[in-house]
């Protein structure tokens, strides 16, 4: 069924502040779940190793969405005796067929899919792809999912360094090493020919003579 969302603001904005007014709360009438945006400014901690770190808050709204998505996936793809695919299979039945550990790990992965992409939204495209690391222990997050308790997870990622010019771009001086272009054409041609000869040369066994300069010898 289609579910509309309403937005409520909790708490007035303090005088002299420039941040958002209070805490934004999205209420889904079907679950009466409140999506509390506890990190509206996307606070990011810059680490010393070229990485950044932030925290992502997972509330009941996000958690319920993840449960719904995983349950829908298994209902449509899992063969469960006594139920047809796409039927209204109880969550407990799905869990017993899939296994509790796999089930909750799938829910956790769904949580990451819906929140990880926007974790560093404040930094735009400066985050390097596929460098994200979830630092919060998996057991801790799974426990929160099992008990349906809101939780935070901490994530870090590599970030592109900021480039600062020492002088304005228009005043920059570029030096080009032209030493490789000072060689006469005849010498270049001869050098290329010699390199080609070395690459294409074949070794023949010298018979009936002594070792000469330029021979290749194998000593055992």
UniProtKB/TrEMBL annotation:
Pfam families: Trigger_N. Residues 1-20 are annotated as: Disordered. GO terms for molecular function: peptidyl-prolyl cis-trans isomerase activity; protein folding chaperone; ribosome binding. InterPro entries: Trig_fac, Trigger_fac_ribosome-bd_bac, Trigger_fac_ribosome-bd_sf. Residues 43-195 form the Trigger factor ribosome-binding bacterial domain. Transmembrane segments: none annotated. One of its GO terms (biological process) is 'de novo' cotranslational protein folding. PANTHER family: TRIGGER FACTOR CHAPERONE AND PEPTIDYL-PROLYL CIS/TRANS ISOMERASE, TRIGGER FACTOR-LIKE PROTEIN TIG, CHLOROPLASTIC. This is Trigger factor ribosome-binding bacterial domain-containing protein. The lineage of its organism: Eukaryota, Viridiplantae, Chlorophyta, Chloropicophyceae, Chloropicales.
């Amino acid at each position: 069924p289609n579910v509309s969302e309403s937005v409520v603001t909790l708490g007035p904005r303090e005088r002299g502040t420039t941040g958002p007014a209070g805490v934004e709360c999205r209420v889904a009438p079907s679950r009466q779940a409140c999506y509390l945006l506890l990190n509206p400014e996307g606070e990011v901690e810059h680490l010393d190793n070229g990485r950044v770190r932030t925290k992502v808050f997972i509330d009941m709204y996000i958690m319920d969405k993840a449960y719904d998505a995983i349950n829908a996936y298994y209902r449509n793809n899992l063969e469960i005796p006594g139920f047809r695919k796409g039927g209204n299979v109880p969550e407990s039945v799905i869990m017993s067929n899939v296994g509790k550990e796999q089930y909750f790990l799938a829910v956790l992965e769904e949580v990451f899919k819906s929140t990880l992409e926007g974790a560093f939204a404040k930094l735009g495209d400066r985050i390097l792809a596929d460098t994200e690391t979830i630092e919060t222990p998996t057991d801790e997050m799974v426990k929160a999912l099992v008990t349906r308790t809101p939780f935070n997870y901490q994530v870090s990622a590599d970030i592109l360094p900021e480039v600062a010019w020492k002088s304005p771009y228009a005043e920059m001086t570029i030096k080009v090493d032209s030493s490789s272009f000072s060689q006469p054409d005849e010498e270049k041609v001869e050098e290329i020919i010699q390199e080609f000869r070395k690459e294409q040369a074949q070794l023949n066994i010298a018979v009936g003579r002594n070792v000469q300069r330029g021979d290749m010898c194998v000593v055992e």
